Amino acid sequence: MRPRVSVQDSALRNGNFSLRIDPVRSEDAGLYEAQVAYNTEVQSCQVELGVITVTLSPPSPVVENEPLLLSCNSSHRASLVETRWFHNGRLVPTSGTFCSLHGALSILRPATSDAGSWCCQLRYSDNEIISATYNLQILGFDGPTNPVVYAAPGSAAD
């Protein structure tokens, strides 16, 4: 896993044996064990790393009015009970232009107003709740509602 992993040598003297992984990849999910031997004493601990990903299909950039699919997947082993989606912090009703199914959200006709932070929240049968965020960018026309713009000769027009 080198060079993505590190241990802070300066923290070892204080009993901090933390392992840092940056960046985390999907294949890093699993059980990690640390063993520390000091004189005749051996201590160990286990930590499970779970990974959650949000993917976009088709990949960025998304063009206004072209359907897209945001998928949320986790390495958690329990069965998925519920998926909730939030756009810029607000719960998204899954009806009309937004359709949610098995951890995925389909946006049939995305608009520039749909750009921003999308958060999926997964709830599992063991009551574990896991969430991840995706920053969605949408290419589109964000101009005047009236497509006619008047400008005087010699002036600038936007």
From TrEMBL:
It is a single-pass type I membrane protein. The keyword Ribonucleoprotein does not apply. It is found in: Cell membrane; Secreted. InterPro entries: Ig-like_dom (IPR007110), Ig-like_dom_sf (IPR036179), Ig-like_fold (IPR013783). Signal peptide: none annotated. One of its GO terms (molecular function) is protein tyrosine kinase binding. It comes from the Eukaryota. PROSITE patterns: IG_LIKE (PS50835). Residues 50-131 form the Ig-like domain. One of its GO terms (cellular component) is external side of plasma membrane. Keywords: Adaptive immunity, Cell membrane, Disulfide bond, Glycoprotein, Immunity, Immunoglobulin domain, Membrane, Repeat, Secreted, Signal, Transmembrane, Transmembrane helix. This is Lymphocyte activation gene 3 protein.
